[in-house]
Structure formats: structure tokens, C-alpha cells
Amino acid sequence: MASVLGTIYDSLSFGNVLLLLLLLLILHYLMVLYEFRNMPPGPRLTYLPVLGNAFSLDFKAEKLTDVFQSLREEYGRVFSLKIGKYKLVMASTPEAVKEMLVNKSADYAGRQQTSTAEARTLGGKDIVLGNYGPAWKLHRKLFTTALRQYLSDIPLIQRRVSTQAEKLVQFMEEQDGNPFDPADCFQRSVADVICGITFGEGYDTTNPHLNKLLKLNVDVLANLDDILLVTMLDFFPLVHYLPFKAYDRFIQPFMKMFDIIRIFLREREGNFDPEKPVKDFISGLLLAKHEAECNNDEERNALLSDDYFINDIEDMFAAGYETTSTTIKWAIAFLVNYSKYQEDIQRQLDEVLGERKPSLDDRPNLPLIHATIIETLRVGNVAPLAVPHVTLTDTTLCGYRVPKGTIVFADTESIHLDPKCWENPTVFNPYRHIDEDGKLITNQSNFYPFGAGRRFCAGEPLAKVELFLFLSWILHNFTFVAEEDGYPPSLKGMSCGVQFPAPYKIRAIKRK
């Protein structure tokens, strides 16, 4: 043995060491090429052990979508790479996005299950981040059933949204034409609607627990640095064993949210009456559990635990207020910058409403409100990459191989701003959604603000109702102008999953 080791040692000349390293390097890249065989093009020579193509990303980018910009320019709009232990594919063409979200929805219905996601969702027990399977299907159905039942009661939904819209108008009147940041009042108004849907009649953010819940959600999204750091570190599972404080800072607010939700759940469990009509989301969840217990359905009952319910309720609350309030912020920012459209909307509101208040019955007669919402969603891109999908089986995309377990991004922002899909795509123009007869163009192609397929946003119908009523109310009552003449809100987006406009102040001038 000693003689063998001695022989090896004697042969380790400088030239032989270099030759060995060269052979190992060639072997490494052959393995990389085999691993990515028949997959979309991407950076292969910059692939490093453990790190993958991490250094191919643009870490100086201000927006999440821009992190991949240089790769998109070099390899095209469908490309692949590897970060840490995960393969990634970016789908940025209309054909690719439609194929993954619609045509092969079942293949791409998974979610990335990282240790952070597991901790943040009590073991993957939520709808947004939960993996596709029996539990997800059950809770998704409970979620959509609750929303459908709520939206079917037109007088109820109109009363609840209009009540909050009226409070919003009152708040703006109190500003007396002085500059103010509308972010908080938009968030609170929409959150109060969601509180009624989720927790029941009479619940809103004046309740100290729900006010704290809203603040925790807002603070999580405002913590951009930790979100981006944790997102990147999640691609390297071993890093979780290192003492990064960002993990604790990111996870702890969710544990506090769950503690608050648990208080309401315990309270409702104590006085739940299955004979009473279901009028809110929590009651619907408790009724499903009661029925499973009555039917001795142990398998279903196991999927209706408190941990699942807590995640369902947080999903309803957070997803319900954030994207809708952010869309309203974008809409007002655009309309201050493009005041002509604001004038046209107000002219149409005056013609249809006169002095009375807006209602859902007015929707067919106010196409410009709808067109403004659609255009805001297209240009503002509240969810530019949506939530990443994961392939549940070996599949293909645009003829390329996509192995099981690959993370696939639907770059919907690229589709919304694609000059091949939209004329002058970066220009805000609601009239592109109005036909020659003045009617709204529905069922737009190449338009994915709420995703599509199995994992489309279940809250889309509610969001559209809220956006219509809130915008109709405030635009009927006020003209919005810049904080200072000549300095309208910036239209540069800031992104950490949700893309929102940079903070701005406006003045709300009461219309006569």
C-alpha cells in the first residue's frame, strides 16, 4: 500500500496535476451538458459545482424580472440554468407561457418545497405555496366555494365594498386637497372588505388583533432585503444550517400572524352552530370539518386540521388585500400621469351616474373603468413572475425537455409588454381595450395578470368587483393630481414578488 501511495506521490509533478485538473474540468462540463441535454439553451460554461449558474444573474438589478435580463438577451426568451440544487426554466414567450399555464397545466402544477416555505406554512399546508395533491385540491375547493357563495349575494358584496368606499371618500375629503400618501388608506379599505368575508360581519381593522394582522402582512412585504436574501438562500438547502438571522426575521412575523388567527379560530370553534347559514370563510371551514366528523371520514378530517385552516385564512386575508390595493395604487399613479383618461372616465361616470352613487348594476355602462383596470394590470404587472411553478413529471416546453422537479417561471410581464402582442406596449392606454362601438373587449389573449390553468388566482372575481367599485367611487368624487405641479408619481415598479409603484403622494381635489 505504501509503495502504491509513493508511486502516486512521485508522479504528481506540476504538469501531471494540471493535466488531472484539466481532465476533471472536462468531465465536469460533460456532466453538465448531459444534465441539461435537450433542455432550453442557457449558460453552461459558467456552471460551478454547488453554486450552479448563480454568478450569471444580475445581482445589481432593482427588479426581480431584471435579474434574468442579460440571460434573456443572450439565450432567448426560453432558457434554462441551475441555481444551487434546482434547475430553472424561464418562459417568456406567449407560446411558452400558454403551454405551461394552460395546455400542460397538470404537468406544471407543483410548487418549490423549500425549508423556508415549509416553516412559513406549517409544513406546506397552505394554498398559494402548497404542492399539488389531495390536500391542496380540498382546500382550494373550500376557498373557491366560499368566494363564489359570497359573490353570489350581490346586495351583500355591494354593501360591504360600498361601505368601505364611502369611508375612503370621507378620508380623502378630510385631507382637504393637501398632499397625502394613499398607500395605507387603500390597503386598509380593501383589508376591511376581506375581514368581513373571512371573519364575519362587523369585523374590520378597527379590531386591534386584525389591525396587528394587517400591519404584520404589510411589514413582511416591505422587508425587501430579507425577502430577496431568503429567496436566494433557499436554492442552497445546506445554508439553512448556518446562523443567518434573515431566516428568523422572515419567519417570525408569520408565526405572530398565525397566533392572531388562532385566537379567532378558537373563538369561532367555541360557538359554532352547524345549523346556521354560512356567512364567512371561517364558518365554511368549520362546517366542512363538522361534516367530515359526522361522516367518520378520517382521511378528509386529517386534512381539515387547525394548521390547514390557519394557512387558508392567512391566504384569504393577505392575497385578498395586497394585490387589489396595489392595483388601485397603480391605477391612480397612471391616471395622474395620463390625466386625459381620468377626464374621460369622469365624463362617463357623470353621464351614467349623475349625482347618485356607483353600483354593480352600472358595470355594463362604464366600460372605461373596466378598460382602465385591465390596462393597469397589464402595464403595472402586480405579479410579474407570479408564483414559480414546479414540474410534477418529465415534460416538454416549446419542444425542449423539462425534467420533473424543475422550477419554471411564467414571465407574464414580458408577454404584457411584448410589442408583438401589444402596440406601443409600455404606453398606458385604456382605449386599446375598447372596440369601435365603445364596448369593452373581453377575453383578451396574451393577458395573464391572474395566471391561468389549475393554479390561476381564485380571488380574480372578487378583485374585479372591488376594483370596479373602489375606483368608481373615488373617481366620481375626486380628481387626482400630483403632489406638486409637474411632478407626477413615478411609474417605475419596485418588486419582491409583488410589484408596486414607488411610494408617492397625491392631492385629491373634490369635484363639484
Automatic annotation (TrEMBL):
Subcellular localization, as worded in the UniProt entry: Endomembrane system; Endoplasmic reticulum membrane; Microsome membrane
Membrane-spanning segments: 12-34
Root EC class: oxidoreductase
Cofactor or coenzyme needed: heme
InterPro entries: Cyt_P450, Cyt_P450_CS, Cyt_P450_E_grp-I, Cyt_P450_sf
Residues bound to heme: C457
UniProt record, GO biological process: hormone biosynthetic process; lipid biosynthetic process; progesterone metabolic process
Protein origin, superkingdom: Eukaryota
GO cellular component: endoplasmic reticulum membrane
Main location: membrane
Matches recorded under PANTHER family: STEROID 17-ALPHA-HYDROXYLASE/17,20 LYASE, STEROID 17-ALPHA-HYDROXYLASE_17,20 LYASE
Protein name: Steroid 21-hydroxylase
Organism whose genome encodes this protein: Desmophyllum pertusum
Organism ancestry: Eukaryota, Metazoa, Cnidaria, Anthozoa, Hexacorallia
